[in-house]
Amino acid sequence: MHRLALRVRELGQLFNSMDPTPFLNKDLDQEANNFIETWASGFAPGCRFHITIHLEQWPTDGDPSEMLTGAIHNHFTYKAELTRSALRHLLLQGRMSLVIGIVFVTLCLLAADAIGKFGDHTGSTIARESLTIVGWVAMWRPLQIFLYDWWPLQRQIRLYQKLSHAHIQVIQGK
Q1: What are the distances in angstroms from CA 118 to CA 111, 114, 146?
Q2: What's the CA dihedral at 38, 42, 47, 51 to 10 degrees?
Q3: Looking at beta carbons, which pairs linking 14-18 to residues 24 or more positions away fall under 8 Å?
Q4: Does the structure show a pLDDT above 60 at 22?
Q5: Which residues partner with 2 through β-bridges?
Q6: How many C-beta atoms lie closer than 10 Å to residue 39's C-beta?
Q7: Where along the chain do its domains lie?
Q8: Which residue stretches of 43-146 are H helix?
Q9: Beta partners for residue 172, in sequence order
Q10: Mean pLDDT of the chain
Q11: Per DSSP, what are the bridge partners of residue 55?
Q12: Which of 27, 49, 130, 169 fits 16 for a cystine, CB–CB 3.0-4.6 Å?
């Protein structure tokens, strides 16, 4: 289990002050979010996290542990859902790009083949090779999406899921 200690003066430092909703649904402050994400991203995907929040000014209305645990878990659950949605959108874009790319490369290769039947002079060779290259370049983006672009999003989803289940402990004092 990996441990992170956050030290804050008051609860409000952890949350986005522009968010008008109650603490349980609030977004974490961007700096707090970035700090937690950066720290957590340095560990293997299968590890567990323990976050200790040292709170200088204890609220007068009681122990904030349950509320902070829920707020942090909700925040990272929401971020996992947003990233999952971005991944679905990327894969949809990849599928549409793949269909377009296949149609385009097919047309380019058919045109290159037709040009090749006109003879073997320099102009037709240049046109045939150009169409072949342009057709395969059209496949670049869908291949990039399906081979490389989805990995970082999937890694983020796993990180957010781990953070949404982190053990949260709140301690009074520095």
Answers
A1: 11, 7, 37
A2: -40
A3: 14/53, 14/68, 14/71, 15/71
A4: no
A5: 49
A6: 16
A7: 2-82+165-172, 84-154
A8: 65-116, 122-137, 140-144
A9: 55
A10: 90
A11: 8, 172
A12: 27
